[in-house]
């Protein structure tokens, strides 16, 4: 990961946007997850886990990230939550949990990193209970494939998706959309239930 990419994940502006915009918006779209066992994929340095506990009322949160540096930062940030939080180094395509393990899964800007984003979504679906809820914030093709960002950031460029394509894939994978928002073509939020 380049220094710019690390900075884009770990900076006070991203943290404030996630905490004061994305969290409250997702809660308006999908409600809380009081008392639930929750998973966050691609947790970065752990701000999302704080939000899921504090704003959504989860009982416990499991979280993982591909990047060992992010995992170490998240573990340090979240240590005060004790056994309510577990953070490990791992991949979206191989979640080490049985089918239906979680009542909710949170995705803050991760699917667009996956070369096989549909397979990532399938794995997320697998670990959700029937009726379990997916909360997602995603960046879309117009941002990912923009010539400037393409040069600066290492995103997979093949088969990128926009808001409509993500909604279509959710339908194909038998999710039921609860609500959604988009900002221009580059950014979107949605909440959907595993049918
Ligand atoms: C744009 S960052 C978002 C981080 C954090 N969720 C946030 O909103 O600040 C994407 C994160 O996904 C992680 N990631 C990318 N591919 C992954 C994979 N296959 N499995 C798990 N994590 C992955 C990256 O290491 C990075 O921390």
UniProtKB/TrEMBL annotation:
Database matches in SUPFAM superfamilies: S-adenosyl-L-methionine-dependent methyltransferases (SSF53335)
Residue span(s) of domain Methyltransferase: 38-132
InterPro entries: Methyltransf_25, Methyltransf_Superfamily, SAM-dependent_MTases_sf
GO terms classed as biological process: methylation
GO molecular function: methyltransferase activity
Keywords: Methyltransferase, Transferase
Protein name: Class I SAM-dependent methyltransferase
Species of provenance: Archangium lansingense
